[in-house]
């Protein structure tokens, strides 16, 4: 028979070993979470800086490629298009889980931002992967017309973008082109069948936008087209 002191002296090391084992097991369970601590910040930093290898590593570790940035509501592919992070953009574009038509809080999509940035290759790549050119509200065609990028305007039209798409206040792409003074874009949209008689919520036509901006060549061109069509 062991006395009480002997039993305690035997039990104590065993108890310590048991507690250590439990602690080790608990730590093992937490390791994935601990290893992923800070991944959110690392993810969006890597996208902004176009750190392709870090993005690959984070994807392998299981980060959701559609994680939303708290600041603007951007997903990774939207942010990559916004920042011009070409290497990261290509990685995300090939990821089967990426939602190509995700929208940030202000309604932007990756396609819209690529169009606004004049990134023809990115626009084509997104369309080839199945990105939708026709969205409710502002569209990629509005954005391309805003900056007067005819190559992207033409590509979007060739891929079935609706030429008279209306923004939330009924502004159309040709109105945006006229507003920006982009005469060649106005001509392209007219040649492709844009309706120059449409008015937005402020009761303004493309001609009104051109007049307001003082773009005489566009005013003359639109006036000629309207008269020729018997609409002025």
Automatic annotation (TrEMBL):
ANK repeats lie at residues 106-138, 136-168, 169-201. Signal peptide: none annotated. This is Ankyrin. It comes from Noviherbaspirillum suwonense. Coiled coil: none annotated. PROSITE patterns: ANK_REP_REGION (PS50297), ANK_REPEAT (PS50088). It comes from the Bacteria. The keyword Ribonucleoprotein does not apply. Gene3D superfamilies: Ankyrin repeat-containing domain (1.25.40.20). SUPFAM superfamilies: Ankyrin repeat (SSF48403). Keywords: ANK repeat, Repeat. The keyword Ion transport does not apply.
């Amino acid at each position: 028979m062991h006395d009480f002191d002997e039993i305690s002296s035997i039990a104590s090391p065993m108890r310590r070993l048991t507690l250590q084992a439990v602690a080790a097991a608990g730590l093992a369970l937490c390791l994935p979470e601990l290893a992923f601590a800070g991944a959110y910040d690392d993810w969006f930093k890597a996208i902004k800086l176009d750190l392709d290898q870090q993005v690959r590593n984070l994807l392998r570790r299981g980060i959701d490629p559609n994680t939303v940035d708290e600041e603007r509501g951007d997903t990774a592919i939207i942010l990559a298009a916004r920042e011009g992070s070409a290497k990261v953009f290509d990685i995300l574009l090939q990821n089967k889980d990426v939602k190509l038509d995700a929208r940030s809080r202000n309604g932007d999509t990756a396609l819209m931002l690529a169009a606004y940035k004049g990134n023809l290759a990115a626009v084509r790549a997104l369309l080839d992967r199945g990105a939708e050119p026709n969205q409710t509200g502002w569209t990629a065609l509005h954005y391309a017309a805003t900056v007067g990028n005819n190559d992207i305007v033409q590509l979007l039209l060739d891929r079935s973008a609706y030429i008279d798409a209306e923004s939330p206040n009924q502004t159309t792409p040709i109105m945006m082109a006229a507003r920006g003074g982009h005469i060649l874009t106005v001509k392209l949209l007219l040649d492709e069948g844009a309706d120059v008689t449409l008015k937005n919520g402020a009761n303004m036509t493309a001609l009104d936008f051109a007049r307001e901006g003082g773009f005489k060549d566009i005013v003359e061109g639109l006036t000629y087209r309207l008269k020729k069509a018997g609409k002025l």
